[in-house]
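Now read these lines:
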Amino acid sequence: GQIWRIATWLLTYGMENYDFSFMSIIYIFFYVMFNNWLGQILESVWGTLRLNLYYFGGALLSVVLSLIITSTTGIPVPLSAYYLNLSLFLAVATLIPEERIMLFGVFPIKMRWLALFDVALILLNILPLLAIAVNSNVAEILLMVLVPPLIPIINYVLTFGKDVRKLLPAGMGLKQRKRR
């Protein structure tokens, strides 16, 4: 009966477990500012319409697939805007992989390396939960753990397709190895 939850999960920014201490508020501030910067970059490259279609299309895809999975299996699929915002970061990293970000305001790191690091972090977050799935109801754990990160990634892959290879460093492709 709480129909508003279909849309309000987008406002959580994936911060369901924060206690709103001083450091949490600072983290939320920088998180929102960073996502705003990503949105401005995508808006300047794509335009407002395509950015909105990408973001809200991913949100709609998340809601529809989670409703379908929940209604067919009875297992609730938690939605988090964290992974949807990560797909924004992956989109920017695909469009401008050579852009440098000053990590901690000191270390310059290319967007592609941060994007690959984020994907690795998602996998590292999923692995311990998969180990728990061995000792419990496997279907429930798999749906609750794998579906939330996979839906925005599906949106990202649908949007970029073969351009995903831009994230990989030059020389990592099979054609380049054969040519050498």
Q: What stands out?
A: Residues 77 and 144 are 5 Å apart (CA to CA). Strands lie at 100-103, 107-110.
